[in-house]
């Protein structure tokens, strides 16, 4: 199947983005793997996390168990960080989970989030503790408390037995494997289309209400006392009708004005669009206008599209003119290009893998300009990664370690 060129149109003069959906076989974008249970049973096939994650571009979320990067800071630098958080509790971001752990020598612990395509295996150590193996062979220990990706039921479309739903407590290991080009059975066709919102238009793979991702998923609502359960693959478009209802147009041409559930009213958690070359765009219900669904050009990037994870590297320009080059630990936390940079533009959230980021330029206390590898740029605000909430960067060069607080950074250029 050939690739498809799509436009991401924004109402921003400074940011015109063209997205290219990479060529892939029809089914290679779905998560696929081998699951081993504690009893030694092995199942192989497409995987789905609960009723949610099903694509390699979907996010795996958990909490890191420790932050060894703070070992490189001086006592004075650590005291300054502690003072910032003691004096300003609202510095804790809505995007990145940070805990102040008194039992772990006062370490800042952050969230670990990455696309499933970057994972080689998950080894379950206990109910909430998991050892992640990355594609490059590195291991990261995470905790799932407060996250639904650890502890979820895993559905396997086993090649021999068919659909099997496995309890997390019975799992030993999940090994991720390249997805066959054509699957005998899958969870459904991708949801794909164009989202029109206050900020502009975004075209890509769609997550409705943060949950529904495939055509067999169901949109619920009611009209005139009648309850409807409509498969997304029957829907042509959805238009927000105020806060409490939506106009749903079916492919048959029939229209319904549905209300009464979080699929069609202001309890909707938001609509996410995954755009190649950018990342994920999360649009709140209040900013959403309309979605127009159409057939996806493919199922998304294949497992092989995700290269072996690399450390973040680049050059940091300091306000006194100094330059430091080497491995960069961003926000004293993100070390790999597979990790995520978060921020907002006009209440629309952007979740951008570092492998798509070229330059970060802080602009005062509240925002930063992000230049993508594509050359396009956008000013983001209100997130841990792009404001004074950022803990600063650690630059590693050989055996040397240099820490630069966020308010001293003029520019970060990534390799």
- Which percent bin holds the helix content? under 10%
Question: Going across the major beta sheet, what is the strand order?
Answer: 8-5-11-10-9-14-3-4-12-13
Q: What would you call the shape?
A: globular
Give the strand content: over 45%
Q: Flag low-confidence runs.
A: 1-24, 88-106
In the residues, how many domains can be counted?
Answer: 3
Number-wise, the strands total: 34
- Largest sheet entry: 10 strands, antiparallel
Number of helical segments with 4 or more residues: 1
Please describe what this structure looks like:
The chain is mainly β and 415 residues long. The chain folds into three domains: 4-25 and 189-303, no CATH class; 32-64 and 112-176, no CATH class; 310-414, no CATH class. It has one helix and 34 strands. It has one helix spanning 75-87; strands spanning 4-8, 17-21, 32-37, 42-49, 59-64, 99-101, 107-109, 111-115, 119-124, 129-134, 139-143, 154-158, 162-166, 171-176, 192-197, 200-207, 218-223, 226-231, 235-241, 245-250, 255-259, 271-275, 279-283, 288-293, 313-318, 323-330, 340-345, 348-353, 357-363, 367-372, 377-381, 393-397, 400-404, 409-414. The strands form six sheets. Strands 8-5-11-10-9-14-3-4-12-13 form a ten-stranded antiparallel sheet, with no helix packed on it. Strand 25 (313-318) and strand 26 (323-330) form a beta hairpin. It is globular and about 65 Å long. The chain starts with a strand and ends with a strand. Residues 1-24 and 88-106 have low confidence and may be disordered.
